[in-house]
Design a protein that fits this description.
Length: 796
């Protein structure tokens, strides 16, 4: 016993020493908040203050000094995040985390984006290169000024690699990966269905819109006619009777996110409808959320050529620019456009030499790039990339045809640093000109100015296509076929000062006709969310910042209201009698509250009923397609609500799975499937939406080091909201920021975000922004009173 106690004491002492070492290492990573520091390269003193949330305000005498200081702050607070972003884009994660990332790196290395970033840098203007160099030097100075490396490198037992100017371009490329699919799954899905389905069935299932469409310009798109028995007759086939799919399954699923969610909203009202006398802008960009948050709040000021420059908003760690915010004259924000920004190119191979492919100039050999992925703790992995004049070879289609991919991010002309000129924009027209020149992931750009004007356009470069149908994979080996240039900014789609003074975008179609043809369709979201925002904006004549925040937090289940009515009709008194489970089901649906509220059982039941009906009604129509190509299914069709509702409304006998005697039987089976699922878990009384919609915001390393998860992650919390409503909220997906601002009236603005400013776990700013974000409590747009002051002096 004495020996055991003695060894127990030794072990306890060892654990204490290790904990002290870990704590000491963590303490050494503390960002510098106060005092004076020498910063090489500065032209004059820079003063940085921080408020109670840790938001920095940078006061400089010139832009380069402000950018250099921003780089220092980004490195001190978020270097590991920046490192992951550049490595993700370049396909270099394995060098940091080991062999588990090799397949991920191969997928990303395919586009050789580090080489693209170097090309972008080489073609940047001297002023832009100077800005990237100043920022990069600031980053490395900030990293060096830490007492120890950021704690993540201690856990990974490796040292951080210095920042290079090209790395900032790679961070932009990382956002391309997050916002666009380089494999163009939407285009690939359409091609599969076109080739494997009867034309009438293809048209029915792939209409580009529905009655829910809510474009700023244009009308809803009608669902095509239901195919008759001469096209398809399921009654002559074997029953399918698909089981209930997971409750996270959504008819509009985007498989980039496990919960099948698409988000991001922005809108603006003109001065006539604003309480400030200037136009008023709201923006909430929805992304996958981790710890720390994607964005970093900041403000910087410096004397400009036309007067003082004062920028406030959110930055992207790794990039020396204000991404979203206000300069006092113009405020701007984004939603992902879901236009068509990549194309799959079919290749004719030379029968006599499979290393050659056909081009408009004749046969040409593939270019081979021997890539090496360095793997931490393992052997290097070498692989060959076959490249064409249009882009790398991606895969082969269902017919065995080799395909290359032409993707905006992999074209050096698709990325540039023009966004920095937003700092000088004086009105919405100047802001649109900057947005149209900017090389970035293509976004819906909405702007509002101090003169009261509002505008929408596309930010990012738009390709000019010729000679092929961009909706499906095509051959580009004829003269004049492919991307033949870039659209002149003067010809960009634009909407300025609409008659009713209101603009909105929500990942859905915004315009129609020639403007839509320029943007293309990369898989627009269903228009239900956009329509709810439109109607919210039309419900009042004048708006304050609080009114705009209320729209961002709108969790009313308007989209599901008709599904609730249908469900109540299915559960009529005869079907409820002598069925306690159905009776409890109906009561919960009657009392649903009409919102995606955390305590609503009825909302969850209605939502899952819709998913069950969708699976039972539509999946059998894909049976032949799925048999030929297993990845051909309904999940990638964001406009499927139109066909589904047509089927259950018109109830065509020829398209009913013979497993069911009638469409009513199918609907009742869906109810019973959901009821059984609820009963199998905690029981229907506890089957709340919040129990499913529990938000887990985690640090990238907490999964690998579970005992640190409580220390690194945000506490799980049940939150309201869902898809198809303004407050889009999933388990790890939601508003990465909520901003409301009227240019020139920033004191009345709102800017909140999840997690916190700092990526250092011991910082008071690591998680202190989280409560306001969870509760939807307005956080001031402008930084508050200074609590810390750090002064940078020019140094050698």
């Amino acid at each position: 016993m004495r020996r055991a106690l003695r060894w127990g004491g030794y072990l306890a002492a060892l654990v204490m020493v290790l904990l002290l070492l870990v704590y000491g290492f963590l303490r050494g990573g503390a960002p510098r908040l106060d005092g004076e520091l020498r910063l090489k390269g500065l032209a004059a003193e820079v003063r940085v203050t921080r408020d109670a949330l840790g938001v920095p305000s940078i006061a400089a005498q010139q832009r380069l000094d402000a950018i250099r200081a921003l780089g220092f702050l980004h490195a001190q607070d978020r270097f590991f995040q920046m490192d992951l972003m550049r490595r993700l884009a370049a396909g270099e994660l394995s060098e940091l985390v080991g062999g588990a990332a090799v397949d991920f790196d191969k997928r990303h290395r395919l586009f050789r984006l580090r080489a693209v970033a170097r090309d972008v840098l080489a073609h940047a203007t001297p002023e832009q290169r100077a800005g990237l160099a100043a920022y990069s030097e600031g980053v490395n100075a900030g990293l060096k000024a830490l007492g120890t490396w950021p704690f993540e490198y201690g856990l990974l037992m490796t040292r951080p690699r210095p920042w290079q100017p090209e790395d900032s371009i790679l961070v932009v490329h990382a956002m391309y990966f997050q916002l666009q699919s380089p494999e163009d799954r939407h285009e690939s899905q359409l091609a599969l269905m076109r080739d494997l389905m009867p034309p009438a069935m293809f048209r029915f299932l792939t209409a580009p819109g529905t009655q829910w469409d809510a474009p700023v310009q244009g009308k809803p798109i009608e669902t095509p006619p239901i195919p008759g028995a001469d096209v398809a007759d399921l009654r002559k086939r074997a029953p399918t009777k698909l089981g209930f799919l997971d409750s996270r399954d959504d008819a509009g699923a985007d498989r980039e996110y496990p919960a099948g969610m698409i988000g991001s909203n922005n809108w603006a009202v003109s001065a006539e409808h604003s309480s400030t006398g200037a136009a008023l802008l709201a923006n909430d960009m929805h992304l996958g959320i981790r710890v720390p948050n994607t964005w970093y709040r900041a403000q910087w000021t410096y004397p400009g050529k036309a007067g003082p420059v004062a920028l406030t908003g959110v930055t992207l760690p790794g990039v020396p620019a204000m991404v979203v915010g206000s300069n006092g004259h113009v405020a701007w924000g984004y939603t992902n456009s879901y236009g068509d920004w990549s194309d799959l190119v079919l290749l004719h191979l030379d029968p006599a030499d499979p290393d050659r492919y056909q081009t408009a100039e004749g046969w040409q050999r593939f270019t081979h790039h021997a890539e090496i992925i360095h793997v931490k703790g393992g052997k290097d992995v070498s692989f060959d990339i076959k490249d064409t004049v249009w882009g790398p070879v991606l895969d082969q289609d269902h017919a065995g045809v080799i395909r290359a991919v032409h993707w905006m991010a992999a074209d050096p002309a698709g990325t540039n640093l023009e966004l920095e000129h937003m700092e000088d924009a004086q009105d919405v027209r100047e802001a649109m000109a900057v947005a149209n020149r900017a090389g970035m992931p293509e976004q819906n750009f909405v702007a509002a100015d101090a003169q009261g004007h509002v505008a929408w356009t596309i930010a990012g470069r738009i390709p000019v296509r010729a000679g092929f149908d961009p909706a499906v994979p095509s051959y580009w080996d004829k003269p004049g076929t492919g991307w033949v240039g870039w659209l002149d900014p003067a010809k960009y789609p634009r909407v300025v000062d609409p008659a009713d003074g209101r603009l909105w975008s929500a990942n859905a179609r915004v315009v129609e006709g020639p403007m839509l043809a320029l943007i293309g369709d990369g898989g627009y979201d269903l228009g239900a969310r956009a329509g709810q925002i439109r109607d919210d904006l039309r419900a009042k004549d004048r708006f304050t910042s609080a009114d705009m925040l209320a729209i961002q937090l709108d969790d009313r289940a308007l989209f599901l209201a008709r599904w609730r009515s249908l469900l109540l009709r299915v559960l009529n008194p005869q079907r409820v009698a002598d069925h306690p489970e159905r009776a409890a089901f109906r009561q919960a649906v009657e009392e649903w509250g009409g919102r995606a509220a955390v305590d609503s059982v009825g909302y969850r039941l209605v939502r899952e009923f819709r998913s069950a009906v969708t699976a039972a009604a539509v999946a059998p129509l894909f049976a032949d397609c799925t048999k030929a190509a297993p990845h051909c299914d309904y999940h990638g069709l964001s406009q499927l609500e139109g066909p589904v509702w047509a089927l259950i409304s018109q109830q065509p006998a020829n398209l009913l799975d013979p497993a069911y005697k009638s469409w009513d039987a199918l609907l009742l089976a869906a109810v019973d499937q959901v009821a059984a699922r609820a009963a199998a878990e905690p029981g229907i009384g506890a089957y709340t939406w919040g129990a499913h919609n529990t938000v887990h915001l985690t640090h990238p390393l907490s999964g690998a080091v579970p005992f640190l998860s409580r220390f690194l992650d945000m506490a799980p919390v049940q939150l309201p909201g869902d898809s198809n409503m303004p407050r889009v909220q999933g388990e790890d997906f939601g508003a990465s920021e909520r901003m409301v601002v009227s240019p020139g009236h920033e004191t009345e603005g709102i800017l909140e975000m999840p997690t916190g400013q700092s990526g250092w776990p011991l910082s008071p700013y690591y998680r202190n922004s989280e409560p306001d974000w969870e509760q939807g409590k307005p956080t001031p747009f402008l930084p508050g009173a200074a609590q810390h002051t750090l002064v940078f002096e020019p140094g050698k």
